[in-house]
C-alpha cells in the first residue's frame, strides 16, 4: 500500500488509528499491539500476500536467535551470531542478488545457467539490516528482554517498514513497551499530520513533476543536448531527494499519530560542503548502520592510514551494492568510496577550501554520480554524461534566436531546448525553485522542532494536504521501493 494513495489516507490510516486508541482506551494493551501488528502486516502484504511468509519467518528466526544469547549455554554466542548473520545475508542474497551473480558467472565463464527470475520481496533490504543490527546488539548484551509481540511490532511497524528509516531497537522497542504511549496525544497528532502533509506534498507535487523529465531523459530520449542533459540529471537529483525525504516525512508523521518517534533520516543533504558532510545528512540511518556494523568492526579509523582508506572504500562498495543488484550501483558506491578517501586525505593534510567552492564541487559530484545510480545501463549513463559535457550539442530557446543568431556560426542551434525530455519553459523554473527550497528554507525536521499548534499551521497543513490529495491523479511508487 502506498502512502500517496486514497486507500491509505482515507481508509487504512484512520481505521488503524481509531481502532488502536479505542483498544488502548479500554486498557486492552496486548490487543492494541496485535491490532498494530496485524494492520502493519496487512499494509505489507497489500501488493502481494506471497511476501508475508518471508517477513514472518525472518522475524521468528531472528527473535529466536536474539533471545538465545541469554538463555542457551549449549551453543556459543559467537556461533549463534554467525548463524543469524549468515541466515539474514543468505535470505537477502537469494532474493536480491541470485540472478545478478548467475548473470556475471555466465558472462565470466561462458556458461548458460538459467536465471531464477525471483521477485524481490518488498522491504527485504530494510528489515534485514534492521534485524542484523538487533542480533549484533543482542550479542553485545545491549538489548533488554522483550516479548515477541513487541519485537514483531519493532520490525513490522508500517510507517518505517517499506523504505525506512532503518530503526534501532533501543530507539523503538522501549516506545512500544511504554504505557505512556497508549494515550492519544493531540500535539503529536497535529504534528504528525503537519509532517505527513509536507512529505505528501514533496512526493506528489514536486518529486512526481521532476520524475517525468528524469524518466524521459534517461529512458526515452536517444540523444540529449547540453541543457536537456543537465535538466535530466538535476531532475533526477531533485526527484530522488523529494521522493525519499517525502517518504521519510510521511513515515515520521504517521508514526507520530501513534506516539512513536522515528529517527531523522535527512538533514538538508544538498547543503553539504564535503562528501563526509553529505553522508552525515543523507539517509542518516543507513550511514549509521554502515558505520556501526561494518566500518567500526573493520577497525574504523583506529588502524593504519592505508587500512583506514580500504575500510572506508569497502563500506561504500557495500552501501552501493545494498541499493541493488547492478554494476551501476557498484560504480556509484566506488565513486563515493573514492571521494570519501580523498576527503580523508585532504583532512589529514590540513588543507582548506572556500565554503562556496566546496559546496559547488560537492553538489556537482553528487549530481553527476546520481547519473550512475539512476541509469539502467552504462549506455544510459554515458548518454546523459556526454550531453552534460556538450557532446550532444547545444540548443538554445527559439526566443533567443533573433538576438543571438551569430552563435549558429559556432555550431549552436535554436529550437526546443528541452523538447527531447518533454520539458518546456517551466522546467528551468522548477529546477531553480528546487534549489531555493533545499538551500534556503528550513527542512521539515527543523520545522518539527519549532512546531506550534495554531491557526497558521492548521491552515498550512490543510492546504498542503488538500492540494496533494487533489494531485493524486496518477499514483506512483516511491523510488526506494526498488531497493
UniProtKB/TrEMBL annotation:
<keyword id="KW-0472">Membrane</keyword>
<feature type="transmembrane region" description="Helical">
    <location>
        <begin position="385"/>
        <end position="405"/>
    </location>
</feature>
<feature type="transmembrane region" description="Helical">
    <location>
        <begin position="80"/>
        <end position="97"/>
    </location>
</feature>
<feature type="transmembrane region" description="Helical">
    <location>
        <begin position="425"/>
        <end position="445"/>
    </location>
</feature>
<dbReference type="GO" id="GO:0016746">
    <property type="term" value="F:acyltransferase activity"/>
</dbReference>
<feature type="transmembrane region" description="Helical">
    <location>
        <begin position="457"/>
        <end position="481"/>
    </location>
</feature>
<dbReference type="GO" id="GO:0042121">
    <property type="term" value="P:alginic acid biosynthetic process"/>
</dbReference>
<feature type="transmembrane region" description="Helical">
    <location>
        <begin position="189"/>
        <end position="214"/>
    </location>
</feature>
<feature type="transmembrane region" description="Helical">
    <location>
        <begin position="355"/>
        <end position="373"/>
    </location>
</feature>
<keyword id="KW-0808">Transferase</keyword>
<feature type="transmembrane region" description="Helical">
    <location>
        <begin position="35"/>
        <end position="60"/>
    </location>
</feature>
<feature type="transmembrane region" description="Helical">
    <location>
        <begin position="6"/>
        <end position="23"/>
    </location>
</feature>
<comment type="similarity">
    <text>Belongs to the membrane-bound acyltransferase family.</text>
</comment>
<feature type="transmembrane region" description="Helical">
    <location>
        <begin position="109"/>
        <end position="136"/>
    </location>
</feature>
<feature type="transmembrane region" description="Helical">
    <location>
        <begin position="312"/>
        <end position="335"/>
    </location>
</feature>
<dbReference type="InterPro" id="IPR024194">
    <property type="entry name" value="Ac/AlaTfrase_AlgI/DltB"/>
</dbReference>
<feature type="transmembrane region" description="Helical">
    <location>
        <begin position="148"/>
        <end position="168"/>
    </location>
</feature>
<dbReference type="Pfam" id="PF03062">
    <property type="entry name" value="MBOAT"/>
</dbReference>
<keyword id="KW-0812">Transmembrane</keyword>
<dbReference type="InterPro" id="IPR051085">
    <property type="entry name" value="MB_O-acyltransferase"/>
</dbReference>
<dbReference type="GO" id="GO:0005886">
    <property type="term" value="C:plasma membrane"/>
</dbReference>
<keyword id="KW-1133">Transmembrane helix</keyword>
<dbReference type="InterPro" id="IPR004299">
    <property type="entry name" value="MBOAT_fam"/>
</dbReference>
<keyword id="KW-0012">Acyltransferase</keyword>
<keyword id="KW-1003">Cell membrane</keyword>
<protein>
    <submittedName>
        <fullName>MBOAT family protein</fullName>
    </submittedName>
</protein>
<dbReference type="InterPro" id="IPR028362">
    <property type="entry name" value="AlgI"/>
</dbReference>
